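Section 5: illustrative case.
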């Protein structure tokens, strides 16, 4: 059984002026426990809607979402779904609610009905996991963007969900904050086996995932390993989607008559191709 399974999911928003607007047109997707999946696509293609469907914040208009076998449409089990899938949103300022870091982290588990002593333990552990334990009595609004987002992630860790969905968690951060958050996410996946769904528009983040799912206007366009997906440069470009910079460089060099013989995902891989090319000349 997959950890998350979307079966023929359609979703429509009710809008005042235009009535019902369908934004997901029949999504089939399986995510296995322990996977690290990057979800990509244009603005407005339905990524955030998917994220909210995964933890039951939104419910499918048609089809269904199973989380660990639980149908999110089952009203009796809404809390069970939230105990399994935690959601981290783009703007940490909208997620931090308390005046002190540790109170903030306690908020999620409190809502799940976790006993106070257990919460104390979880909060300390979660703050250590994101390397923010020293800041536990600080005021969240005085932290940097990356630190705030790590506190928001600690809040989800303290809920002990087996899956964390992060909706563009690095979009408002500077490069250092982005790196901090990516390191934290990778560590949770690698060391704790937590299933990660990372929505991002940074291709250098997507290449760090084990699997890349590309959406286009409410449907899934591509699904595969990062190497497999980003090798299809022309197809991605036709849909006005980006590829990693190193991939782009080699693609353009090839168009200019310099074929390095590969589609690298990183600067290091690109360098390696250059070196072997120079050696053979
Ligand atoms: N609350 C809402 N009411 C009506 N339409 C919405 C709402 N939220 C999102 N949409 C529309 O649904 C589509 C998908 O949005 P979203 O899931 O946020 O996409 P993404 O996260 O990929 O940018 C967009 O066309 C967006 O305008
Ligand atoms: Mg979004």
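Designed sequence:
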């Amino acid at each position: 059984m997959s950890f998350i399974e979307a079966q023929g999911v359609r979703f429509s928003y009710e809008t005042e002026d235009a009535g019902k607007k369908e934004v997901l047109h029949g999504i089939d997707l399986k995510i296995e426990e322990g996977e690290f999946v990057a979800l990509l696509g244009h603005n407005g293609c339905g990524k955030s809607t998917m994220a909210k469907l995964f933890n039951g914040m939104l419910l499918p208009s048609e089809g269904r979402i199973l989380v660990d076998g639980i149908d999110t449409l089952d009203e009796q089990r809404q809390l069970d779904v939230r105990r399994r899938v935690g959601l981290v949103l783009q703007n940490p300022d909208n997620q931090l609610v308390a005046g002190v870091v540790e109170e903030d982290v306690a908020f999620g588990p409190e809502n799940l009905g976790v006993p106070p002593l257990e919460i104390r333990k979880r909060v300390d552990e979660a703050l250590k996991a994101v390397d923010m334990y020293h800041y536990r009595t600080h005021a969240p609004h005085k932290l940097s963007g990356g630190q705030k987002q790590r506190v928001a992630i600690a809040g989800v860790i303290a809920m002990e969900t087996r899956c964390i969905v992060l909706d563009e968690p690095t979009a408002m951060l500077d490069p250092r904050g982005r790196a901090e958050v990516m390191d934290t996410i990778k560590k949770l996946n690698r060391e704790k086996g937590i299933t990660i769904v990372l929505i991002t528009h940074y291709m250098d983040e997507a290449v760090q995932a084990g699997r890349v799912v590309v959406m286009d206007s409410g449907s899934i366009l591509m699904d595969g390993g990062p190497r497999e997906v980003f090798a299809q440069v022309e197809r991605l470009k036709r849909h006005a989607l980006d590829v990693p910079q190193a991939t782009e460089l080699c693609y353009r060099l090839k168009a200019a008559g310099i074929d390095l013989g590969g589609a690298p995902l990183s600067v290091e891989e690109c360098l390696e191709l250059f070196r072997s090319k120079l050696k053979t000349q």
